[in-house]
Write a structure and sequence with these properties.
Length: 137
């Protein structure tokens, strides 16, 4: 959340945060954009049993090999080319293409290219919190 306030009124931000907390808004306790060693991820939408993120993977960067017990993921490539490991299968996913990652499937996303890789990630399942992850490396 971005707040613009008059000089000398910044203490009123506390009131806004309290109001967001009462409304149960996630923005009161966590950022919608996360910065990682490999790039960024921003929540762009969510609801019961789903979350959508825009993910940017910088050139030459790779995410950890991982899996999720309670959610699947659908990745749609907006820009660049994704190198994807899904189970034992390796594939390249290009702009305007997508790949589905079923729950409990080991997977990894890499950007082997020279431009940032931008994808939309749709998470779907009975539990979509960030602690539903098992890392293998």
């Amino acid at each position: 959340v971005i707040v613009v306030a008059k000089k000398g009124e910044s203490q009123k931000v506390k009131n806004i945060v309290e109001r967001l907390k009462k409304q149960g808004r996630r923005e009161a306790t966590e950022h919608t954009t996360m910065y990682h060693s490999w790039g960024t991820s921003s929540v762009i939408g969510n609801g019961p049993n789903y979350r959508m993120k825009k993910v940017r993977v910088m050139p030459g960067k790779t995410l950890s090999l991982q899996m999720h017990y309670h959610r699947s993921e659908h990745w749609i490539v907006l820009r660049g080319t994704a190198a994807v490991l899904r189970g034992e299968e390796s594939m390249m996913v290009h702009e305007n293409e997508s790949v589905f990652i079923p729950q409990t499937t080991r997977h990894r996303l890499s950007n082997l290219g020279r431009i940032p890789l931008d994808i939309i990630e749709v998470q779907n399942g009975s539990y979509i919190e960030e602690d539903d992850v098992r890392y293998f490396e």
